[in-house]
Amino acid sequence: MWLILALVSAISAGFVSIAVKLGMKDIDSNLGTLLRTVVVLVFTFIMVLIVGSLNEISKITWFEWIFITASGLATGLSWLCYFRALQLGSVNKVVPVDRLSTVLTMTLAIIIFGESFWWLTPIAMGIMIVGTMLMIRKNKTEANEKQSNLWLIYAVLSLVFASAVAILAKVGMENVDSRLGTFLRTAVVLVMAFIIVASQKKLSAVRKLTKLNWIFILISGVLTGISWLCYFAAIQIGPVSVIVPIDKLSILITVLFSYILFKEKLSKKALLGLVLLTGGTLLLII
Description:
The protein is mainly alpha-helical. It has one domain (2-285). The chain is 79% helix and 0% strand. Helix 3 (62-88) packs across helix 9 (178-199).
């Protein structure tokens, strides 16, 4: 069951990046995160009502509340950094860096949870790192344009926070219903995003959003909700060191549609990098 959940999470996550790039590129990244989070919160709340787990809030211990809050903050920071990186850089470069959170998460899972690994695991991780480096390497045109590497800083921060989310969820939320946990975590993200946007005095920008913006905010929010519900449900019942790599296979969907919709072509080195990144991920899953 956890395998199916992980695959659904990967497919949904793959389309989130495309939806954000397609219809939200002109929206402030923090405001976009806030509005997207509202959609995710409503979606997850409906799911909680359907399964009837809302009354389980009273059973959550103070220890679990600490980890719910911490994972919510890490989730929010990861989203803020990731979508800011997408605005500053191309999808084909941002996504591979974010997917390196697989290596960090697996390393932490092995150290903290004692999850088993085999001798090919370090080799697979090395292949993924090499593949990522090939994908984000500038081509001649980009080198001549002297583009800013600010997107890379945000992408790296995103992967660090994303790894923290998986570990925190596994450590302190095993006994919390995954849908309820996702709803509460999303509520924390919403509060954090609202404080940031309000402090920047950007709430008034909502009036300037077009119908197209709202459509893609709704689409990306629902897809994010589906992805996170499946992801955390899978983590609760399956091995983190296997689920995380499966989830990161969403890069195949993202790269494919970034080529179709945005004409972001891969150079030969970048294509080789994608093959290595995917091959390393599949090796980890095996």
